[in-house]
Design a protein that fits this description.
- The structure holds two protein chains of two kinds.
- By secondary structure, chain A is mostly helical.
- Chain A folds into two domains: 1-126; 135-269, no CATH class.
- Chain A has helices spanning 2-17, 20-34, 37-40, 44-81, 85-88, 95-124, 129-145, 150-182, 189-218, 220-225, 232-264.
- By secondary structure, chain B is an alpha/beta fold.
- Chain B has a single domain (6-238), classed as Rossmann fold.
- Chain B contains nine helices and nine strands.
- Chain B has a six-stranded mixed beta sheet, with helices on both faces.
- In chain B, helix 6 (161-174) links the parallel strand 6 and strand 7.
- Classes of the chains: A mainly alpha, B alpha/beta.
- Chain A binds chain B through residues 1, 4, 7-8, 12, 15, 78-79, 83-87, 89-94, 263-266, 268, and chain B through 52-56, 70-72, 74-75, 77, 79, 81, 83-87, 89, 98, 101-103.
């Protein structure tokens, strides 16, 4: 059932981004040929064309990320807490599957937007493939200099990506929980969601402050373990995994609070 | 398969301090057409939402086919809400795909033939359909399932009298004969002739639950007439006249 939910969430994502992703890449390609003339060309017309092309490109980049955030919010607020909720919550699935599917789709959508942004920059910059090859040679030189094996560098990359995804999920789950709290009110649901968002933000800030003050001071073990002098590679891995666990714990709290509200306190209009 | 399809014991729902249902006890069998009858605000929609799992009761228990509300009960319930619940950019056929994916008892071929007889073009975008056509699509989705329990919340309230018979006919010719249909409405005369049982809901409590034949025999009047009597009395009790 989870796979079927994902299918429909991804379908609606493709529908939403079917225009803006290709448009961003096409505009990047246009800029690849116009960007130089801004500096080199003596013709005022060519300069104007190149300036406008760049402006449109920057505009579509900003729009792409704004649309991404709005898409994530709308899919949850309208899809689960609005009228469409009458359909979604009577499907034979559990609330955690509904939230999980929305979240996974949100994270993948954001990653794809980031990939499109990076690709578009690579398209604009007049880089040849030889340059990119050189770049990789540079990386491998760096790694070999650190006496780091390839497996470790790949592991670091994966740990880093996992941390990014969990951090992204954290931001979105924060939004989800705020909207779930906001929907409990019978009036001003949007305003109450914003209030909930700010309140959670403050609460998390206080919690981190308290934990940082009392907890970490007594936790001398990680400091001993994260000893970059003796075993830098192991220490880096440990650092990553502690961060991943902290992010995961935060995600879990947000997720289960949201799930509880949708399971026990659903309040569709 | 459980003998009883629906069992409610002491079902109570409060919205804040305001009671919507208080101590509802109810048992429903299979293969019936049941009218859930009551004026506006008597708790009909609340009761239906609890049955289909959209609301959690404040107190009391509810079992459908012996199970508490969850993915299983949702798989055997076909629910027609009192509003549109689909995204505008979809086509009716997209919704058929969705229903076929999630409900094993959805009959796509029947949905298509129902569309034909109701005059709906399923390949049209929902955005371009009129309100009445959208309601028909929703009715097709709900009735093309071979569900055990159909929950129809005011299916005829928003349409003209001519369309009412059409919709009732669609319900009657398509529901699963082993399943039970629960229709909530305050337009009793329109559905009286099809009812096997009637439930009168008044201020969140069941004041009467009997077969339509028993009611007519005992009271010597139609369900509609009895309904008018019961709920007119309420007005006089509560009124300041």
């Amino acid at each position: 059932m989870f796979g079927k939910l994902l299918k429909y969430d991804f379908r609606s994502m493709l529908k939403q981004f079917a225009f803006i992703w290709p448009a961003a890449l096409v505009l990047a390609l246009v800029n690849r040929f116009t960007v130089n003339s801004f500096v080199t060309s003596a013709s005022g017309l060519r300069q104007t064309v190149s300036g406008v092309a760049m402006l449109v490109y920057v505009g579509i980049m900003i729009a792409m990320f704004v649309v991404t955030i709005i898409f994530v919010i709308q899919r949850f607020f309208r899809g689960l807490l609005g009228d469409e909720g009458y359909l979604m919550h009577t499907l034979p699935v559990s609330p955690w599957q509904l939230i999980g599917s929305k979240l996974l789709c949100a994270v993948v959508t954001t990653l794809l937007s980031i990939v499109v942004a990076i690709l578009s920059i690579l398209l604009i910059m007049p880089i040849s493939w030889i340059n990119i090859l050189d770049m990789f040679k540079g990386f491998s030189y760096l790694f070999s200099h650190w006496n780091m094996e390839l497996t470790h560098s790949v592991l670091f990359l994966l740990e880093f990506l996992l941390l990014i995804c969990l951090g992204m999920a954290n931001g979105y789950l924060h939004l989800y929980l705020s909207m779930a709290i906001g929907h409990l009110f019978n009036r001003n649901r949007v305003a109450m969601s914003v209030v909930a968002y700010i309140a959670i933000n403050a609460l998390v800030g206080i919690l981190i402050g308290i934990l940082g003050n009392m907890g970490l001071r007594n936790l001398s073990i990680p400091y001993d373990l994260i000893n970059f002098g003796n075993a830098p590679v192991a220490a880096m891995h440990l650092f990553f995994w502690i961060s991943i666990l902290i992010a995961l714990a935060g995600d879990a709290v947000y997720f289960f609070c949201t799930e509880y509200i949708l399971r026990k306190r659903l309040n569709l209009e | 398969m459980n003998e009883l399809l629906v069992t409610c014991t002491g079902l109570t729902k409060y919205y804040g301090q305001k009671p919507a249902l208080t101590g509802v006890n109810l048992e429903l069998g299979r293969g019936r057409i049941v009218g859930l009858l009551g004026p506006n605000g008597s708790g009909k929609t609340t009761f239906i939402k609890i049955l289909c799992g959209l609301l959690q009761p404040t107190d009391g228990a509810i079992l459908i086919d012996g199970q508490p509300a969850g993915p299983y009960t949702k798989s055997v319930i076909s629910y027609l809400p009192d509003r549109m619940y689909f995204a505008d950019w979809m086509k009716a056929t997209d919704l058929f795909d969705l229903f076929a994916d999630f409900y094993a008892d959805f009959d796509r071929a029947r949905a298509m033939s129902m569309c034909a007889s109701l005059g709906v073009t399923p390949s049209d975008r929902l955005k371009s359909m009129s309100k009445g056509t959208k309601e028909k699509v929703q009715l097709v989705l709900v009735m093309a399932r071979k569900a055990q329990l159909y929950l129809l919340d005011e299916p005829i309230a928003g349409v003209d009298p001519a369309a009412r018979d059409f919709i009732l006919n669609t319900i009657l010719t398509n529901y699963n004969e082993d399943g039970t249909v629960l229709i909530s409405t305050h337009l009793i005369s329109d559905i009286e002739k099809v009812l096997d049982e009637a439930i009168f809901l008044k201020d969140g409590q069941i004041v009467l639950h009997d077969t339509a034949d028993n009611i007519r025999e005992r009271e010597n009047k139609s369900v509609d007439a009895l309904f008018r009597e019961v709920f007119r009395a309420q007005n006089m009790e509560g009124g300041a006249f």
